[in-house]
Amino acid sequence: MSDTHTPPALSDEELAALDAHWRAANYLAVGQIYLVANPLLTRPLTPEDIKPRLLGHWGTSPGLNLVHTHLNRVIKDRSIEALCVWGPGHGGPAVLANAWLEGSYSETYPDVPRTTEGMNRLFKQFSFPGGVPSHVAPETPGSIHEGGELGYALTHAYGAAFDHPGLLVTCVIGDGEAETGPLAASWHANKFLDPVHDGAVLPILHLNGYKIANPTVLARLPEDELDQLLRGYGHDPLYVTGDDPATVHRAMAAAMDTAVERIAAHQRAAREEGATERPRWPMIVLRTPKGWTGPQEVDGLPVENTWRSHQVPLSGVRDNPEHLRQLEAWLRSYRPEELFDAEGRPTEQVLACVPEGVARLGSTPYANGGLLLRDLPVPALEDHAVRVDKPGSASHSPTQVLGGLLADIMAATAERRDFRVVGPDETASNRLQDLYRATGKAWQARTLPTDEHLARDGRVMEVLSEHLCQGWLEGYLLTGRHGLFSSYEAFAHIVDSMVNQHIKWLRTSRRLPWRRPIASLNYLLTSHVWRQDHNGFSHQDPGFVDHILNKSPEVVRVYLPPDANTLLSVADHALRSRDYVNVIVAGKQPTFDWLTMEEARAHCARGAGAWEWAGTEDGSREPDVVLGCAGDVPTQEVLAAADLLRRHLPELAVRVVNVVDIARMQPHEEHPHGMTDAEYDALFTRDKPVIFAYHGYPWLIHRLAYRRTGHANLHVRGYKEEGTTTTPFDMVVRNDLDRYRLVMDVIDRVPGLGVRAVAVRQAMADVRTRHHAWIREHGVDLPEVEEWSWGG
């Protein structure tokens, strides 16, 4: 749908005000890169006014300043609730400059007032020890997107728009960023945006032509090819091109007015007239020179409108008098005496287009999501708990049980719409299909009679791009809502880099008292390594946990619940938590039920504990051996090994320890959930052999526990990168995690037992040999494995 209405042209007074604001922002951006003193140029610049290390990025800043200036105008004139996601990686000078101009920065940081002194502090702190980063970062008021890594701006913008029907999310996409895979996938997010219940996203593709040292792909496409590409993505592009400020201001104002009017028309058609056709949402293509209004030439080489303007156009200002002269001329070209009064305050003309209060981009509560966050209505766990009369007497799919809980949450949030589940095409595969009792899958494209569960207002988000799932959920959480990311375990690695940035964001925001806590980012990793026997080696990788546990211990949490009730308890905790990244690894295949709901709660609160019913120690002495386990399949194998030991070596005192919270293995000094040495020694003993069956790569447990007194006695079995398409039990045999190998490990490591139990060890080895022959003949596991149940 195109709106033929032509917006009124800017008056000369409006044009002058917009240009004044833009020049002021440009001046402040340059000042942040270069100056430590003399902020208003009340005297000629000297080398002492210049920072000793020149850091920052000028090239993208004038374009970002232009967008901010014109967003201010439409927000103020049309009373729009808005948020902006600034994609270009190093656009910090521009966004900080605009926050300071509008006053939101000084309200957030009173020691940086809108005065000459405050301007000087704004300049000095930028990319300076003890100051602020060169990116748009958590320290930047109004931001939800870390600019340090490219590719995720547009998916964050859509995440912010979902379920915020009154919000306009503008997203500035740098043309370098537009070359990344995640950004390319993000253009398809408009097929999931519901014009009735969601806000709108206005992409602004800023084509300034260059990356660090090369031209950009989209900037060099013929205009008709670029237009076809963007229309093929489902957008209705508007074009703003030029290098004359007055001409560009007029064109940008017209484009912004047209865009917001078209958005309003699409929303009105869907909300009031019942239109169901997927809108062609507007977007803006902004072509302005890289480094616009900066030095045109330095040392005989062109700079403006080339890659040389990307970072610091004049690099030798402290030592080169000609560079110093050029910098002063550059700064004075903005005519700062017209923009700031004698005390350094912006003039009325500069602030004429700036909105007030929370309408300012730096003050919007949508960028400080904790201000909007409400507690999630998680139902009583007893409503979904499975009955456990005795350990191992029945089995359930843990994730299917969890699906019922999530469905109740989805139903309870039907009116307030602040909970979503995202995942790459696997919700039903991961046994969470009960969600469809409460909502459908978000979908705005064409539907066919054979489709199931698709709904324009659905709050399950499925798309075969982990990058989009991650970005949507991050944007959703950062703007004050709740959610869960369900994924096959092996493919969580696709978002390794994205979760890095989110963890860094949370760690930094925890240190900013004005940033309110947000709902945690919760992963459910299922279809995991031990039950990917049908898909094979490509789907077998438990290493996401290792990646997460390398990160800030104040933010990351990893849980491996062994059955359905412990999964419910862990999920309840994770969904209620704030400012964490919680990783939950749980199987979707039927698993033995070990603990009642009451026992599961207590066990999960401890994070690790001895299962007295599973061992054979009588309390009169220390155990002879400790069987440790973490994860559902390792827990089953340990209990099966304990059962074998009970039958074949009844005199052996065995302790079984299950670990749900894997960080408990770390020293308390290294992680807030870590055990003290006294706790660890009491549970695992100081000198007895510990045979530990772990869900993932075994060296992680060694790394977490290497400082423990009994580490030399710790022997870990886990995934050793041995996989294929095979039977479930063959997966554990291939990786020496099976019950028979664990019994052999006990015999090998308990002092003196090897000689006495040689026949038992030989019997265990014989079963493994028989297993290999059996599966090759019959294609299924041994009957004693398939039919095993806990008999303790």
UniProtKB/TrEMBL annotation:
Q: Which InterPro entries match?
A: Phosphoketolase, THDP-binding, Transketo_C/PFOR_II, Xul5P/Fru6P_PKetolase, Xul5P/Fru6P_PKetolase_C, Xul5P/Fru6P_PKetolase_CS, Xul5P/Fru6P_PKetolase_N, Xul5P/Fru6P_PKetolase_ThDP_BS
Q: Which PROSITE patterns match?
A: PHOSPHOKETOLASE_1, PHOSPHOKETOLASE_2
What taxonomic ancestry is recorded? Bacteria, Bacillati, Actinomycetota, Actinomycetes, Kitasatosporales
Q: Which cofactor does it need?
A: thiamine diphosphate
The EC number of this protein is 4.1.2.-
Broad class of enzyme this protein falls into: lyase
Which Pfam families does this UniProt record tie to the protein? XFP, XFP_C, XFP_N
Can the keyword Lyase be found in this entry's annotation?
yes
Question: Can you say what this protein is called?
Answer: Probable phosphoketolase
Q: Could you tell me the keywords of this UniProt record? A: Lyase, Thiamine pyrophosphate
Indicate the segments forming the Xylulose 5-phosphate/Fructose 6-phosphate phosphoketolase C-terminal domain, all copies. Answer: 588-790
**Could you say which protein family the record assigns here?**
Belongs to the XFP family.
Q: Which domain of life is it from?
A: Bacteria
Which CDD domains does the entry mention?
A: TPP_PK (cd02011)
